[in-house]
Design brief:
Order of helices and strands: HHEEHHHHHHHH
Distance between the termini: 42 Å
Strand content: under 5%
Structural class: mainly alpha
Number of strands: 2
Length: about 260
């Protein structure tokens, strides 16, 4: 009995994976095309933004900020905010842009959201890998002190962003004005995420309240992995994971009501 269930579960998992892979490849071809550098924009677009901000900060700021080199500080803050903003902004209209695909019975609304958000996650992850590799090669930053912390913070941040996107996307399908609110929300994320500051730099009385923001825990965790124990960081991985689970649960619940409102002509 358990073997039959296991076989069926593996078969379902393979089917879902094939659907997601096909949707991701379609999204790549639709967004970037097959001419010129094509798919390379998947990595190149975030890198242009990241290195643009990096160059600007190196021009207007001294080489060190609170005893930390500006280059690794900026890249460990700006890449996470790009991950959050790209997942939210690109994932918001996943259903509207691909409504016709729902003709196929095997494709669900969750497939559409998951495929587009997975593509953004892969894009930003590759961009982070390339940017850090280039900076290390030119001796502009050191190799991470604890890779598990970097990976953990990055995946937790993506998980939280996934849940937030599902909630906002479901609300946007019901209430049109939510989409305008999302644009403002992505800008508010910059101070809320700790992109350009660290918790240790804040006055003591503000540190505990700020730690209630789940994004900051993830960014601090990433920086702890890069900078090591000699740079004070504050984070709670379990708290961030709890937020990721709760937001995803709420998002999945709200998606149940979206399918009824989608008009597949």
């Amino acid at each position: 009995m358990w073997r039959d269930r296991l076989t069926k579960s593996l078969s379902d998992a393979r089917r879902h994976f094939r659907i997601l892979w096909a949707l991701m490849m379609r999204e790549l071809a639709t967004r970037y095309g097959r001419d010129n550098i094509g798919f390379l924009w998947l990595i190149g677009e975030p890198l242009i933004f990241a290195f643009g901000v990096l160059i600007m900060w190196n021009i207007i700021k001294p080489p060190y900020e609170h005893g930390i080199r500006v280059t690794p500080f900026v890249i460990t803050g700006y890449m996470p905010i790009l991950l959050m903003r790209h997942m939210i902004s690109h994932g918001l209209n996943s259903v509207r842009a691909n409504t016709a695909l729902l003709y196929h019975r095997q494709i669900t609304i969750l497939h559409l959201y998951t495929a587009r958000l997975a593509l953004e996650f892969v894009s930003l992850s590759l961009s982070l890998f390339v940017s850090v590799g280039v900076l290390i090669a030119f001796n502009l930053m050191d190799f991470p002190h604890a890779l598990p912390l970097v990976y953990g913070g990055w995946f937790l941040l993506a998980w939280i962003s996934f849940g937030v996107t599902l909630i906002l996307a479901a609300m946007a399908e019901v209430m049109e004005y939510v989409e305008r609110f999302v644009q403002l929300f992505t800008y508010v994320l910059i101070p809320l995420s700790g992109t350009f500051y660290m918790v240790a730099w804040l006055p003591y009385q503000f540190r505990k309240p700020v730690m209630y923001i789940p994004f900051i825990n993830c960014v601090e965790m990433i920086r702890a992995g890069f900078f090591g124990e000699f740079v004070p960081t504050y984070y709670n991985a379990a708290y961030a994971a709890a937020w990721g689970g709760a937001l995803t649960f709420v998002g999945l619940f709200l998606l149940r009501f979206v399918r009824e409102r989608v008009d597949v002509e």
